[in-house]
Structure formats: structure tokens, C-alpha cells
Batch of 4 targets.
Target 1
Amino acid sequence: MAQRLADSVSPYLRSHADNPVDWWPWGEEAFAEAARRDVPVLVSIGYATCHWCHVMARESFGDPDLAAHLNENLVAIKVDREEHPEVDQSFLTAASAFTRNLGWPLTVFTTPQGAAFFAGTYFPPRPVAGSASFRQVVDAVLEAWSDRRDEVRATADAVRAAVVAARPVAAAGDGSGEPGSEGPGEDALVAAVAHLLDLEDREHGGIGTAPKFPNAPVLTLLLERGAHGDTAAEAFARRWLAAMADSGLRDAVEGGFFRYATMRDWSVPHYERMATDNAQLLAAYTAAGDEDTAAGIAGFLLDVLRLPSGAFASAQDSESELDGVRSEGGYYALTAAERASQPRPALDEKVLTGVNGMVVGALAEAGARFGRAEWVDAAAAAADTVLSQHTGPQSAGDPAAPLARASLDGRVSAAPATLEDYGGLAGGLLRLALATGEVRFAVTARDLIEACRTADGTIRAPGGGDPVLVAQGVDGETDPSDGAQPSGRALLADAALLLAAMTGRAEHRELATAAMAPAFGVAASQPSAFGAALAVAARLAAPVEQLVVVAEGDGGVLAEASAGWRAGVRAVVTPAQAAGFASAGFELFEGRGLRDGAATAYLCEGFVCRLPITDPAALAELLGPKGSAPPTP
């Protein structure tokens, strides 16, 4: 049997290489083989730190008898959802026609043309409480394929049509490329926050019951509104953040946050720890001024997820071997001293471009806010690693040379980069540029953002999407809503708005609105599912406020006076760095220099600036309480 997964860039696929199942990686060859044999396709989607993926692998995919049955009657494809997010999103959309309990492992049965006709998630090895066993499911699928092929194809065609219909419009308006609406206005945003407040768990914090998720995109919305004077949103965010910081969702030893809690009071976590969650929560606790919690998250990122290359692993597993016995979460019940004698849970060492961009941006902002230069240095090192390994030394920053999506030990995956990668990396690089004063990061970010607008004005990642999905007539980017992390569109729009505040160019703001056009029509009525989209809308509705501190060294007292300001774009640069930004086309820095040799602050709104400020007390008074930390109710 061919071991097609053994040399994969994905640790998840490598973990299945020795299964008795004859797995194929995602690609045209697997579907061609299914067509040649006239058999259905099993598409099994998961990721390396997914607990129930491990369970199903041990129970079913490791069973030689079941594997032989699969090999004889199906073509089996194994997909890492993090390596191929468009594939995952497409099949999640298809699976929603068959089950309301979406998640991973995602188990989808398709025709040789890739059209889904049945789907579910985890299936047990034996029937349990009315749930069919995986063998029973497989047999039912094969019986339908053999005896009721017309029904199967009719179902597959209907689901495929629904998936295609779910595709977002790729540009503003009718796709003409003309600038569209700037999204929900003030009244809609107030109503969205009120709706979220109605969902608040006043006893334990956050929204919902159990399982309880951090929902960082919604926290981003609340904090964005709070930065511009919405005291109800700000207070809600602080109650939520305080509840999580004091709960079992946070690892008291290593500082990082777990994926979610299985109980309403944030206890009994699902113990995997993701880079995406922790990057977003680092940004949130930084905005809230909670240095202690932020430091714990930064410590987890730097001490646990940081790889020797300087880039960051995508996640840490929930399972580990304690004294030779497999344990789900047992490592995290140990004290620091007890952990020292035990191996840490494994990392998924796959480096994801967009995720690393999110980590870079969060570390850069936190380092600038709390005066932690080592965090900014780590962010810069990670950015340099990703740029060198995921773009190539001759094409870094060249929009004509698409990014790589992922790599492992420096070896790059063939999976195409997505809007998450372009937007996530661009946003991180811009925040790093503001924290370091290094214009090269901002120039590269601008190239990445501009590469995502096509000649006809549509917004998509260069390269045209996953080639297998495209050949099957499906656009993998079917959902503009935000899940546990911002959608690729929201990440790109966030970066484009930040860029617009630095360049003053209307086309960058228009790119942000075009990217979000598919979400803005429904976001305000579903705020818990569109937190990042509404955070973009909140920024579009607010004045464009900017602060540039020009000083030699670290900015001194003027920088300290403005460190907690959250209402807009803040940069601390030397005179030479300001000149470098200006010459590269970043209008915000034009004419910014020292006044009479003293450190000088420039406070602007929409590029219209007050007189230069050299007195820290005067600057603090001008900035006022907006965006500062009110007491938590």
C-alpha cells in the first residue's frame, strides 16, 4: 500500500501515514482514481491537535478490517483543514445540509466529481445511543451508491448548487468594482452591541451557555466601540475578559488560553491551545490594558509555540503521555514543578502565513503598549522568517509572486495562500512597522494588500483559489462570517483600513469596503457571527485618528504619555524613520520632525493635524480619557 502522506508538510497527514487506510492527499489524482474505479470518495478533514480526530483515527482508521473495507470500496482523502481552509469551508457548507453539529473530524462522502451526498463528524466504532457506527455509515453509503445511484446524484447536485449559491459576491455592489456602502452605520452598531448585551451571561461572563468559546472577534468589536466612547461595549468587554482571565480557560502555569470550555463557568477546558486564539486574546488584553494577562499569553507564545526558526507553530495538542499513559489534558493539571519532569504535549509545527501575521501584529502592539522590546523583537524575527520562507528571497513583497500558505521545517506546502494569509500577514506587518519604525514592513504589507484587488475590482487572493475546487466548479470561500477567528475578508479589510490611515489614499479604504461587501448586508443582524466584520464597520464609521511621536531613542515621556491611547493609529519613530515612511508614500509621516530638537507629537484627524506638541502633559490632556481603562462594573 502506498504511503502517500509520509512526506506531507502537514503533521496531521503524517500522523495518518501508517494507517491501514490507503489515504490520498487532497488533489486531482484522488478524484481521477475514484472516477476510474467508479467508486465514491471519503473526504476526512481534521487537524493535528483535534482530540476527536485522534480518537476516530485510533478507533476506526487504525482498524485493519475496516480499513480493508474502505480501500476496496472507496477512495479515501485526508485533508488538514489548516493547510486547506478553502476545502474545509466548502465541505463544511456542504455538510450543513446533513448535520447541525458541524466540527472536526469532518466526514464527507462525495461523488468522483467532488459533490457531497452525505456528511457527518465523528462516528464511533460501535452504535452508541442511537448514533450509527462508522461501519454502518460506510455500508449505507455504499448501498446507496450501488443501488440508488440516481438518488445519490440528485442529492449531490442539490448540495453542490447550494454550495455554489452560498458564494459571496467578490466585489462591492454587483461586482463592477465601484466603491460600495461603508457598511452598518452608528445606529446599526449600537443595536448590534445591544443585541450582544442581551446574550451576555451575567453570572459567568461572555455569551452563550455551554460549550463556552472566547469569541475573540466579538471582543474585538466591543473593544473597538469602546475605544470610540461606547461605554456599554467597553464595560461588557472588560467583564468578559476578567471572567476568562480568572477561569480555568487560562493555563495558570504557562499563561496561554485553551480552545474553549465545556462548561458554562469556563471550566473543564478543551485543552488544545491555538495560535489564532492566543494572538487575538493578546490583542484584546493589550487593548484593555491588562498587562499581567497579556504577559502570560505572550510568554506562552514565545516559550511554547515559538519554533527555532523564529516563526510560530499553529497549535499545541491537548493529549500527552504522562508516565507512559496517554492523557487528555492531564499535563495541564500539573504544577510547574511537576510539568518539568513530563514531556510537553506535541506541537503542530506547521507554520501558517496568516496565523503568524496575527501573532506578529499582537506581539508588536503589546510590546509597544507595555514597553516590552523583546516582544517586538520576537515579532520582527517571526516576520522575517515567514517572508523569507513563504515568498522566496527574490519575491518578498512582490504581489505578482503569490504567498505560500504553509511550511514545515522550511519546506513549503503546495496549498494556495488565501485572503487570511494576505490579510493576516499584511495586518501584522503594518503593526510591526508602527512598533519598530521599519518602513520595509509597511511597504511589503502594502504590496500584499494591493495584490488582492483584481483588474475588475473583485477582491480575492492571487492565484484564483484552490485549483481542485475551481475545476469542480466550487469557490472555496463560501462564508464571509467570522468563526473562532476573523474571516479572510475581515483580516484583509482590517489591514487595508490601517494602510489607508497611513497613506491617505482613498483606494485603500475602498478596498476594505469592497472586501466586506458580502458581510455588511447581514452582519448587524447576526453580530455574534460577524464580530470582526462589525469591528471593521465600526472603524469605517469613526473618525480616522492618528498620532505620530517623533523622537530619538524610544520616544521618552511623550511615548509613555500616549502608550494607552486606543482611538486610532499610533507610531513612535525617529526623524530618519519618519522621512523613510514619507519618501515611501506614507503621507501620515510627511513633514514630521523634531521641534527645536525636542521630541514632538502630531495628533491628527483624517490627516488634519493640530499644532506640534512637545509637552507630555499637554498631550495627555488632548488625548483625554477616550480609550483609557474605566473601572470594570
Target 2
Amino acid sequence: MSIMKQSSKALDRPLAEWFTAISLGQIKLPRFQRFEAWDRNRITSFLNTVVHNLPIGVTLVLEVGDEEKFVSRHIVTAEKDGNPKVSQHLLDGQQRLTAFWRSIHNNYEWETYFVHIPEFDVEGEKEEGEEISIRHCARYMKAGQRYPLWADEPRYCLYRGLIPVNLLRPADIQAEIDAWVSAATATYNPDDNDPEFASKIRKFMAIQEKVKGQIVSLRERIAHFNLPYLSLPVTTEKEVALQVFINMNTNSKPLSRYDIIVAEVESATGNSLHDLQEKLTADYPKVQNYYELPFQILATSALLQDKLPNERGMIDMCKTKMVDNWDTMSKCLGRMADFLDAQGVYDRQRLPTNAVLAVIAASYSLIPEHGDFRGKAEKLLQRYLWSAFFTDRYENSAASRAYNDFRNLRELLQNPAFEDSDLVKVPALNRSEHPLVTVEELMSADWPKRETIRGRGILSVANYLGAIDFADGQKANFQSLQNREYHHLFPDALLKEAEINSFLALNCALVTWKTNRTIGRKDPLDYLQDRTDWTDEQTVEQRLKTHLIPVACLKNGKYDSLEGNDRLAKIREDFQVFLSTRAQLVSLAVSRLANGESISPESLSQTSYLPPTVPDQPVMLFTVPAV
């Protein structure tokens, strides 16, 4: 009788061992694996799982013998000189290990990762029982420097309760840790002549020891965190390994929090949450356009019970009260959808951050359907909405920040006589804590089809202004946007020629295009004309205004007569002027929207602006103030 052999073996491996194997080049990726796909939110979530020592799914490796079965590559930024001996191919778990490797070195270009220690946070909002968590800081370049500057200054990091994740990597870096702690705590070190020197030096040393102690504890937690793996033996056929890889990446659907709460509600009340949800959808169909309806239901219900709009709050809230509040919650979600529609935010694909949904919905429980106060209250919500889109308020800890913003909005809404001077009570509206985005940050904002707050925010400004389609003349709304595409204003091929990243939010417009996809490296205006059913130029220019697109900057782009370096230099200069000009238009629009004002393309034409790179002639379609 034959005996079946075990197909694979589950093994434990702490992150410290994964780190060593990656650093030595012993683990590589089959070339058929996709490249990095996780955004900063997924990376933050993964790192939070690690620092809280929560369980995580297994990875999958294929043992490598004398010869690799697949052409392979190193994990990004873990490239090694020479030809190290490869012992394993990583079939599943690339995103987790890439996120771990890159964050633990903090070598991402556009973000830096920190551990937030609440007890060290001098400036932050304190929450009872707040836990250690991972936070990220978005980075951008300005005048050759990487901003914000504080993210590279230890003392300012510690003031915010932040320790850079790279200090936690499982390597011999004690000197690096000591240097950072010394710089971070230097302000507590008293002068030798200070009359209170003895007490202050003791305090200084105690602070240093506490910071070092936290770093040591976190380093131990990360080093010993278990990331288990399944091991396919060396004898596994190449075709079998490929099939296992496909299955591991397509067959997983874990039980959701909503699935669990459905069972809890039915157990506690005898009501079917699915039946209630169907009624909500029938009564307020627009709500489902903005995000997964279960999330909106649970997050809004949690806020209405004064709970955090996250998994913890959803678990803690009373399920019986949730059902009792159902009609109120449903109506609030319906009014939220109408409000977002009026603000030019039409669907999930164009929503900059879902953190605002429950806050706005729950706020409507305090806003009458008619009367003068409704207008005042909705002006407050407008200020909150656009501030959420164009400050750093929701870059990290979105649920806890949404909770704090809601509690302060609630306080204002419960007092109909609130004044503008009271707005600073709402953290998202406090400009000293959360200033509006700068022109430079707008210029570096990522392509809005990706899930980026700033990129989608820029698109939302255009949609607020109507974003009239270049070709068919339709204004932006939910239906018309379903037929539009994200497209470049300066064509991708042209910018690639000049080695420029074309996938920037300010280089994007959401419009309907013809089916011809073979247009090459044309001048911007010619490119647009070829891609759309162009009407007369004056009409199209008026439509471009509604996207805050400075047409005159596009008209400058004439490159057919130029060659070599002259051509490349003009492309780069014109694109920079275009970005700067459009960024200032968007910045002006944002400042007014975040102040609760209504805007139109014409209302943004009050003062003149002359780009410094074109000193002899205005290049604006319409004028903006210098920033």
C-alpha cells in the first residue's frame, strides 16, 4: 500500500529571520510576480498588525535546489551585488515582505513611517486608552529639499510622539539609535549653570531611558513577530508551483466584520440586517454610490452611539440600539449623499477619503431639514469636507480623528448661535494644526485614479465647478462620469520623451474621448483636439475653464519645429509653468471652498498672476493671485 506524502509543510519564522534572509539575497521573487501594489494605507495596516502582535496569514515559498526553476528578481531595494545563493522563491507574501523591508528601512520616496507613542505626544489629541500605532507622513520635494522638514528632525518627531520605523529594524544599529535619542531629547538637557541642574538632569536621563526602553520593546516585538510560511519542496514541478501560486492569490475571502454583526443583530433583536439594508438602498439609492454600504451603516451607527467609527467601535456599540436608530441613521445617510452630490463628489471612484462619510451623515442627526440653521450648518459641513480633502488631517488615524471631529462638530451644531471664531474647536478646521495644502504639494499630487486623497481632491474641485466635457458639453454628474476616462493633458508620450512623470493629478482631466488610441507625441492642444469631437475653440476654452485648465499654457506647447535639447528643455519648462499655474488656480479654489464659499470659474478671475518663467506676456486663460 502506498503512503501519501505531505504536499507542504507549515513552518514558523520570525521577522528577524526573514530580514536576514532578504538582506543576504537568499529569498527572491519569481519574475512573473506583480510589482509593488500596496498603498500607504495597506502598509500602515500591515505594520499595525505587527506592532500589536496580531495573527497574520501564511506566506508561500518554493525551496530552491541547485538551480532556480524561475527567472527571479530581488525584493525592491534589497538588491545585492554579485550572485548570492538563492535558497527560496517567494510565491505568496511579496506585498507583506516588500512593505516590511522598505518601511523598516524607511526608503519610500513619498512617505515616511513612524510608530506613534501616545505618552510622548505633546501636541496631539489625547484619547483614553489610545494604543501605540503606525503612522505615515506624506513627503514632497520643494527647492531641492524633502518636506515636511520636521519628519527628518528627531526632536520634532518626538514632540509629536513619533519614532521612525527604521530604528526598529532587526540589525546591529545601536549607534544609530543612540544618536537619534540623543538628538530627540537634547532640548531636555539642562545647561551646566542651570540652578535646577540636578533635578533637570535626572528628568533628562529618565526621558532618555523611557524612549530607549520603548524602542527596545518595539524592536523585540518586531524581531520575534511570527510570519509563518508554507514550504513547497524542491521536487515540486514548475507547473504545479505556478498553479499553487494562482490558487493562493484568488481563493481567499475572509469573514467580514459586517458578517459577524449581522449574526449578532439577528441574535439580539430577531431582525435581519440584510432586509433592513435592502430597504435603505431602496429608500436612498445614492448612498451606495459612495462606499461599501455595510461600512457606512456600521460607522455611522457607531458615531450616533458616541463610538469610534472603526472595528472596535462597531463591536462595542449596542446592536439593539443600532436597530432602534435605523430610520434616523438611514435618513442621515440619504442626506449625506445629497450633500456630497451638491459638493461635486459623486461616487466612490472620485471620493478622496471615506473618513468623512460617517461624520457628515451623523452630523445630519442634528440638522433640521428646513430653516435658516440648515444653511448655516451645511456651510459648516462644507468647510469640514474640503478641509478633510486638502489638509493632512486624515493621512493617519482616520477613525480616531473622524471621531474627534464629529464630537466637536456636534458641539457646534447643538448651539445654533455658534460663531466663526468657534470653528477652531474642530481640529480639521484649525489652520494652526492642519493648514491647507501648499501649491508645491498640489504639484506633486498623484494620479486621481489611484486612491490618493490629494489627487482625488483636485478632481473634486473640477467636478464642483461642473467639469464640462470637452466634447459633448455635459456637466459632471454621477451618470456622465461613468462614461468618462482619466486622461493626460500633456500627453504621456511627450512627457516620457523628456523623462517627466506624467501621472500627476494636475495633468489629468476626466472627460469622454474618441476611440482612437494611436495619437503619439503631439503638442498638448493638438492632442486634445485630435482626441475629442472638437467644436469651436471658444466653446472648448469655456469648457476647459470649468476644469481649472489654463488653456494659454497648453497653447505655448509647440514643439514640432524643435529638436534635441532645445525641444526637451521647452517641454520641461512649459509643463512646469502649466503645473504651477493650475496648482495656484486649485489652491485659490480650495481656500474659498474650505471657507464655506461658493465658487465658479469666473469668481476665480479677480486678480492677475504672471508666471515668473514667462516675464513678457501673460499665459493665463484667466487670472489668479500669486502664491
Target 3
Amino acid sequence: MDEFFGSEYNPKSLPQRIDGVLGCAPHPTEVLRASARMLRASGLAFSREVEDRLLLAAGAIADRIDHGTALNPKKAAAFRTPSLREFLTKSGDLRRVFPQKIFHMLLSEAEVEAWDTCEGRGQTALFHLGALSGLITGIETPGWTSTRDYRWQIIGLCQYGSEEARAEEQPLMVQPDAVTISTIHGAKGLEFAGVFLAAVNANSFPNSMARRKPDLPLEGRIVEEIDVEGLADNETRDGERRLMYVALTRAERFLFISHCGKRTSSFIKELRPMVSESGGTVTDDSQQLLNELKYAPKEHLRDVRLATSFSDLRYYLECPHDFYLRKVLGFAPTIDQAFGYGRGVHNLMRAVHSDPKKWAALATNRPALEREIQGLIDHGLFYLRYTTGNPADNMRAKGLEVVANYIERYAGELGELTFEPEKSFETLVEYEDGEGGVLVSGAIDVIRRDNPPQVTLVDFKSGDPESDKHQKLDEEEMRLQVALYAVAAKKELEYQPEQGLVRYLDADDAMKAELSVPLNAAALTAATKLVATTAADIRNRKFSEGPKARQGGGARCSHCDFLGFCGIKQARDEKRGGSDSW
């Protein structure tokens, strides 16, 4: 783009924000240069060399997308990111792009790994980049992001992001060490340890315009039906008082209210005696306030209950820093065409176990069996959001094959027993220190009702697609997952799980198609303890460690979603070692 689009009158538009923050025209080159100067002034590492290389990369990416121009390999050698070099030098027409992948490549070229310190200014900067990563997932359109559409998607993202977007709440486990700036309306339903309510000034709060009857652009009978008077605040300003109540009650521990100007807000006059009577401080001496705050008890003792799932805990078990980038800062992984394959297979398996006898009866007639499975696929049970054409057809065919093979292999079981597919649960695991607990939610793929309340828990692994390899669990993690499901089945569903089975749907060898998981008391106790200690580590923000050792060896960093901009030691070593996979 030659410039960033937006209203010249709306202060929230991107051009107006650029002017207000950077003081330059909304042209990409000028914005990058001004941003680089501001980053350096704030203490973040962003050298002139990195600045020039990033500008060169942005131009080359634009040429590749807009005009299909491939870059000379010698010129592409100036870039540090292997995936960017491959993208720019690959010949042939470019039919589709992946916005998140482009974002990751630019973060790598910008060397933001130097900011990845889990503290201070760098953490705040990465938190905002993570929020942008979350917004980018919204333009990863279903089916096909064409090179023609991509430009307009970016324009739309820039306009929406600057004017309306809000960072998602962090409901999972921990809040980032960052300040949330919000309107009072935007803070409804949320709580914060400390709240600063600024500019409670005359004519501003309560708003002098709140009592004005709105002039609606309507006419006819609808005007008679609407209580226009009721849309304005009343004489006692109850609407504005309710808004003030919302603001005051967002604070859990500390509340600061400030005002300025010669005239004092009527709300400030009413609040002064209330604050004094409740033990607070009313003063125009900022030093006094700081001294009192310095000796105030900071800890707010309460049970801390965190909410998560095994899928999210798994990220921490494999690499605490991956969890930090993904779940605390909000970075989204790149999307590829195979996204959704596993969910599609699981949808088919849910349908099979919802009516097992029907499918067992079809097991001896392969053509009829495949026709029935194809019917499920045709009805939308194998939806692939990011894939079309031959790749999508190939994945659906693969899904049909593995499900048909499963039905043939386990026909006897399907014909004799009953099942509960995708049984959802929530279970509370207490911390060992007694300070709260973690609420773990999830869904058991299948509960096989052997002799209720004795049951077997079955978990499916869909298998083959290369894009899923970074999500595959080793045997230790699989045993933990099934044992955790058993804890939930016992506590919440009142079953007595006797065993767990992990079934690999794409295994050619029948001997390797199933992993048995013991669910005795020792296994359940060990699983509960590991979940509790893992959640406590997350609560205590232990994110500076790299990946844990994998069963059977092998480097996790080489296929991590965030290798290009991860600053952990193992990631830096992997990049220095010349890996071509990031």
C-alpha cells in the first residue's frame, strides 16, 4: 500500500493515530522509520540495519504478492529468515497467501526475539504484537486468501484494528505484566487489582451532554413509539451515576480517582467524604499518597482458581515459554492447508459411536460402509476451513479410509457395547500449597460402557498429516491425558474407569494401533499431582524455561510455531545452528 487509509476527522482512525503518536504522514516508509526511532528511544533493540532490512523485506513481499515477482536468490540472501527467503525466491504464480505466516516472517526479520525477556518494556511490546497476531487470525479467511483479496483484507484490518479492536481478555490463567487502557463501558464485567480513574472533571464526568435529548434522524410513527425523553439522562444524572458505579467497582485492591481544572466535578464533591469515611485518602499531595501506598499491604489473599484444559497444559509441559508466547501474550500459530483434518476425523468417530450397531452391521460390506461415511462427509462433518480443491479432497478421502478401517477392526466391540462419545467435563484440582486450584475442562473422546460403572476411556489420535506433527504427544503425555480424564470421570461422572486406551487411527500395524494406559490409584494420584504443580508454576509465572526433553530425543525448537521470534536460549541455538525450518 502507498498509504494507510482512514478518516482524517476520526481521532481513532489509523492515519490520525499515526499522526498523534509518530508525528508523520501515513505512508509506510515514513511510519517504519518513525516507529524505529521511537522503539530505540524507548530502550528496545532495533538497529538501523534491522530497520533497513525490514523495509526491504516489506517491499519484496509486496512485489511478490501484487505482481508475482520472484526475488533473485543473491538478493534474498540478505534476509535472515529461511521461510522468507523461500517465499520470495519461489518461482511461479502465487495463488494464495497466509497472513499469519507473513506476520511471523516479519517478526523474525525485525529480530523481536531480543525483546523476549519475560519482563519490562520488551514484554509489553510483545504483548501488543500478540494482540495483533490475534486480530490477524480474523482475516485467515475460509477456503482461500487470494493475492487479489489480501490487500483489501489488510486495509480492513488496519481500519478495524485502530478504531474498534480490543485485546481479548486473558481468562486462561495469568494476566500479562501490562496496563489495560479502557473506557468504563469496555471494563464492564472485568476486575483489576488496581484501577486509575482519570479526568473526573466538571462537564466531563458527569457529562454535560448526557441530559440533552437526542435528535433522532427519524420521522413518522416510529418517532411516536420511541420515548426520546427517556434516552437522555434525568435531573439527578442517574445514568452517569450508574456509569461511575461501574468504574468504582472494577477495583479489587486499589482505586485512584484524579481530577484537574479550576472547576470541580459534582461527583468529586460527593466522593470526597465517602472516601474519607471508608478509610481512604483525599489529598492534593502526591508525595503523601505515594508514601501511604508504599506501606500498604499489597497481597490480596484469596483462593486463586485458574481455568484451563489439558490441551493448554500440554503446551506448558512441552515448553513453558511456548505457553507464555501462545497463551499469555496471545501469539497465534501459522495456519496451513491441513488445519481441521483431526477435527474432521473426530467428528466422524463421534457419529460412529453414537450409533455403533449400525456401523458394525456395515463392517462386512466395504463399499456400503464407505458410502455411508461419505454421506456424513457430504453433510458437513469433515469441514476444512483453510483448504479447497485437490488437497481438501485428498484429506477427506484419507479420513474416510481411516474411519472405515477402524470400523472393520473394532466391529465386534461396536456391535456388543454402548458408548458415550465426546463426554464433556470440568474438574477442580487443588494446589498442593492449599492456595486455590485449577479448573480443568475437556472432552473424553469415547467412554466405553463395559459394565457400568466400570468403563474404559478411549482417546483417538488421527495421525498422519505433516502439519499436525508439532501437536503429537509422546507416550508419557498421552498417559497423563488419559489419567486426567479418568480423574474427571471418577469425580464428576461417577464412573469407575478400569483402563484407558489410546487408539492410533492411521496405524498400519495392528500391534501398534493401541496403547494401553493403567488407571490404578497410583496413576491417578501422579496425574493429579503433575497437573497441580504445572498449574501452580503457571500461576507463579515461571515462563523463562525452554522445551522439556522429549521422549525418544529430537529437538522441539526446530518445528516450533514461534521459533523465528522466540528469545529463549534453545531457540537462539537452533537458529544459530543453521536450521532451514523456521
Target 4
Amino acid sequence: MKKKIVIGIIATLILTSAIGIVGMNFKSKKLTRENFHTDLLGENVYIFSPDDNPEEIQEVLDSAFLMAEIGQFEDDRYGFYFLPGEYHDIDVPVGFYTQVAGLGALPTDVKLPSVNCSARWLGTDDNHIALCNFWRSVENMQVTGDSMWAVSQATDMRRMQIDGDLYLHDEKGWASGGWLSNSNINGVVDSGSQQQWLSRNNKYSGWVGENWNEVFAGDDPAGVPTTSWPDHAYSAEDNVPIVREKPFLVYDEKEGFCIYVSSTKTDAVGADWLDQEPDHKLIPLSECYVAKDSIDNADTINQALAKGKDIVFTPGTYQLSDTLKVTREDTILLGLGLASLEPTEGLPCVSTEANGVTIAGLLFDAGQKESETLLVMEETEVENANPSLLSDVYFRVGGRRTDEPCKTKSCLVINQDNVIGDNLWIWRADHGDQVAWDKNTCANGIIINGDDATMYGLMVEHFQEYQTIWNGNNGRLVMYQSEVPYDVTDARAWSSHDGSVAGYSSITVADSVTDFYGMGIGIYLYNRDAKIPMETAMEVPDAPNVQVKNIITVMLNGNPGMHHCINQAGNSVTSIGQVAKVLYYCNGDWK
């Protein structure tokens, strides 16, 4: 892993706003930021039109990419949006903290020849390692050829039409992803060296490549691999019991910029837009509050929330001295360009006290004053309510600050029932600045106390006690990825059950839980510092309706390893590269 790369001298850029949406006639500069802007969305959002000069578009994309791709822990954020139409002679590279999206109602409304994320930034063109290709997004476009999307966690590819093949790796360099949903791939998806992946509600002609844990949920069955565990790494669910797709920005000829909001679906199979436009509503941005990090703070955003406004966070880093309080049902908090929220006074960034809330496209950073948690979803009194949604929501404890370490006791606490998680990466940093066992401290990643929680693509890593605590009933977990901490100092610092058990399992499901289902669970161990054995990767109560399907443990490095996969079931992993699997566990029985 690489430490933060310090950017050297960058030319001073004068930022102004364009009068309209499409490009104006101007003399090209090194980074033409003053063009392609609208005052509404600020200086870090670029709006392109098919009428714009492709060379000028390419120059903006390339210049931004050169800065973004060396900024693993920087504050720059970018949103590149394309108005409906067909674009020619443009290659879109996607770097850190960059969102690239089409502004049409359908992915096929915006056609681009090339959108790619490679893995060359770590040093040389023959590196190809995508293990740190985090924090980037592509959505709602048609790519008229092949596409490379070599990424790891905290990334999303959503609502895409790809006419060729899709490569989830860069020449088989290591990658640790990842997320693909609601998309149609005319060709083959090649996952290559991806350690794990979740494909949800997609259609493709075939899937090749496997490593540890590739999971398919609600994909069109024609392309899903027919082989499965233990000989292959594929797990499949026929449908998705409940889901709501992430909201996104569109440009409507009548209403202007709007948020496109899909309805909740049940028993979903395949991409929802292929046969007809899905059930949805449009919320004009004129009815929302559009926040900008240069002028907005907790007070101004809370005033807007109190007036019943949905919030759109334009790309930037928002320092919050108070908690953003969401009390209106169906409120939307939508981040553009990986917008970041960071507390300055040790308070949660966001607290919700309503049903049907959507939080999407936001990165929560721990601050230097320790918080109890970064996002809390409080219990409500409404039964069988519209579910709340967390979509492409990421959490980070440490790595980005050079002066003081960042701390919190947990990242996400869900007390509310009926919450859907749809691509979450919750990360205590294992590299970067001010990173050590006694610096970027955090006990737990996620604590789920509410009933009927559904998590698709939950990734939780490196926390100092349990990564995931699941106390709610009727929970459902589809694809889980976790590395336990590298930097444990000694056995006293990492023993559970009042010190009687070595290490903490990654997932602990409470003894009071009577109904839980998990599938496609990958938990990995790296004893880098202290040589402390881990007793088991996952703990669940023995009950007839508590079931886990396809759980894998891998010994990445060090020793002495891990004794069991789940409870006392499964073989130990004690040498580098050793793998253990349990195909099914329920009520003490396993195979």
C-alpha cells in the first residue's frame, strides 16, 4: 500500500462560471475550468454537450484526471456530466473522487465511445494493481465499445449500457472490488483477478473469471455462471427481494435539472430500464437545496432540512460543527462527485428520525474529535413503512490528515427497521497518514439494531473489535467482504468475550436473533504485527432460521491464522494463501 502522495506545484487556476450549460467559444487553457459550468452546481461540476468541441472536453477530462489520480487522500472532488446525445473522439478516464454520469432519463440517451478506469497510478505502466482504486463512480451512460473498470471498494458502476465487453481488472493485476448493478452488458463480463464482486440486477451474455467470492443477485439468469461452490467461487440468488435504485441527476427539457427517484421494487430480476422506463418521479432541483462546501455549513443545511428540502451536495468536503438532522419522511441527501462530510466537534454528521430516507453518494470521514458514530438512523414508530436506503455510502477513519489522527467509536448505527444498504464500504484506514493502532481508533464499523435490514455488498474492514454487529431480527446479508485489522499490538488488545476468546470475529449476530440469512461471505486475515490467532470469522446463534450460505476465509499473510469459518465449523487457515470454506451452516449443522 502506498502512503499519501504529496502533490507538488500545481498551476493556480482562476475559477469563473459560464453563463449557460454548453461550452462557449474561448481560447483553450491547460485546465479549462471556467468553461462547462453552471452557477447552480458550482465550480467542481462540469456539464458537457454534444455540441461542445471534443478536443476541449478531452483537455478538461485529462487535466482533471492528472490531478485526481495522484490524490488518494486529497480534497479535490469532480463531477463530469454529459447532456443527452452522442459524443465522438472522447476517452473518459475516471480517477479518485470523480463521478462521471449521463443526464438522460435512460442510459442510452448519452453515448460515449470510451469510459475507463485503469490501474497504473501506483508507479509504472506495468503495475496494474487496483487494490487502492477507491472512491469513483460511473452511472447512466452507454459506452459504444469495451470498457475497463479496474477498481476496488468504494466504487460503483450503475445503470450502464456497454455495447462490448466489460473488464473488471487491468491485465490481471490484483483488485478487491466491487459493484455492478442495474446494467446491460452486450458482451462478456471478465472479473479476472477480482478477489470478490457483487453483481446485482444486471444482464450480460456471460461471466468469466473468479477468485474467492463472486456473488450474483437478481441477474438475468442467461449469463450467470451455472457452476458454484466448492469447486468454483460463484454464488447466485435468483432475485432481489427488495431494492430501491439510487437516485441520480437528470436534465429535463421542461423542469431543468432534476433528481430522478425510482420506486421500491420487490422480487427484482435484471436491469429495470431495459424493457420500459421504470416507475419513478422527478424532483426539480429548484425545489431542493443545493449545497456548496465554499459557503454552506451545518447551520445552513439544517435550515434547509427544517423547511422540508432535499439536499444535493455538490462536489467538495463539508466541515460540520453540528449534526444534520433529517426528520421529514422520504428526504433525500444526494452527494455529487463523492462529496464528503466531516464532523469538527465530535458529533455525528447525520442523524435520521424518519422513514423512507435516502442517503446516497456520500463519503463520511471521521474527525479529529472522537464521535460516538458518524451516521445514526434512529428508530421510528411507523410499522411496515417505506424503507430507508443507503446507496454508495462510504465511511473512512483516518488516512487523510497529516496533523492529528481521526477517531470515532463506530461509523454507522442503524436503529431503524426496514433499512436497505446498497454498496457500503466502511473502512478504518490501514494506510495513509496518522494510521496506527493507537491513532485512528474505532471499535466497530457498523451496528445494526433494527429489524428487517437488508444489506447488498457490505464491506467492513480493519476495525479494532467486531467489524459488524448484527442485533436486529429478519436480517439479510448478500455479499460481505472484510479484512480484520493488520495492526493489532498484543493479545490483551484483541480478545473478545471478556478476554476468553482470541480475537474478534468479523461478524457477530446476537444470541437473541432468531431469523437471519447471509450468503457470499468473505473474511480475510492478515497477522501483520502481533501473532494472535483468531478463533472464528463469524459468530451466529444456533437457531432453525439462522442460515449462512457460502462463507470463505483466507489467510493472507503472517501467522498463526484463524481456527474456524463460522462458530466451530470449518477448517483452520494457518499458512499464507490457505483457504477454508463452509457451504452451509444452520443450527449447528454444516457442510
